[in-house]
Amino acid sequence: xxxxxxxxxxxxxxxxxxxxxxxxxxxxxxxxxxxxxxxxxxxxxxxxxxxxxxxxxxxxxxxxxxxxxxxxxxxxxxxxxxxxxxxxxxxxxxxxxxxxxxxxxxxxxxxxxxxxxxxxxxxxxxxxxxxxxxxxxxxxxxxxxxxxxxxxxxxxxxxxxxxxxxxxxxxxxxxxxxxxxxxxxxxxxxxxxxxxxxxxxxxxxxxxxxxxxxxxxxxxxxxxxxxxxxxxxxxxxxxxxxxxxxxxxxxxxxxxxxxxxxxxxxxxxxxxxxxxxxxxxxxxxxxxxxxxxxxxxxxxxxxxxxxxxxxxxxxxxxxxxxxxxxxxxxxxxxxxxxxx
Length: 340
Prior knowledge:
Anthranilate synthase; 17 strands; alpha+beta; 32% strand; 32% helix
């Protein structure tokens, strides 16, 4: 009798002990089972995930994908009149970079996404940046952050799951830019690592996982310059009951490999030590589930409101072939607004 009561007490107290990520995972599974649409946000460390109704109000969340949107088209858009960036000093950046390289040479990690904050000044508010930016995915958490992401995380359509890891950036104005980025041995090694990592991640939930498209280029127009970004497409087939496990599927792949590194667990420890700042929702995940299909993105190209000051968070992948000066410049190239 005592044993039975103990089991009942344990069951009743279990939900209270669940962390926020576990609660969200279960809630997503339940809504997936019901075929109930929802929208979600996950921060990088999965400490403050949030779930919203599909028709969330603009005061709660505003979002837009290439296929769906929570906000109507507005009229005349504001103009970007000035944009000034104040990054961390190179000497400060190099301290973190050197720590990453130390761990790489020790064999603790072989690819790590190293990021840093850059303070920006502009005439626009977060809401106005949301209005003028052009990107496959846009997210505005009012008074908190705006994101205009070019990188899908996973898509699920008719039982097929796809991921699109993005690794490799170059100034499109550079002579022979397309050829240079695709022939760069460091970029190739980095991209291969991420593709292999994402393929393994997808295999946790799907069968017949394959690289459908390897290292294709996408052009991004910004307020500073045009950029070429390199991506790949990886696909797999989900079981028939995937909707009832939608939370399990997503959480098995987190954090996203392209913005953490490999191996994930140890690399996450190194990231926290080397970056010395809180990513928050930056490099987390945003997604839309319509009751059957899912579309999601990695929260990169991200501006956060920190007590009235705007901070842009950016970075890039570090390998043993990386050079601090080159990586620092790549980090700065990603501090932009895609306006046209």
